[in-house]
Amino acid sequence: MSDISKDEGAFVALVARGKKRLARAERIKERVDAGERLTPTDIDFLEEVFRTSNENAALVERHPEWHEIYGKTVRLYKELMDKALENEESGKR
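Predicted structure:
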């Protein structure tokens, strides 16, 4: 099996898992946007997402055609984390 075929297979798996994760992240973001704090379960989930994102960065880097979707996903998680941090900081005052 060529590297491209392996990469494409890996990407299909990432997309399938990513759809579930994206739906969950959007639900978390809605709560965070409403002013809620992250739960320990949310934090565990986001840590896992960041860990696997880092593990798959080289795969995405080899395929410029995947950069846009990967970038959009990363931006969503960043927005979520920025708002969660803002909520934490405002709650400590």
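Summary: The radius of gyration is 15 Å.
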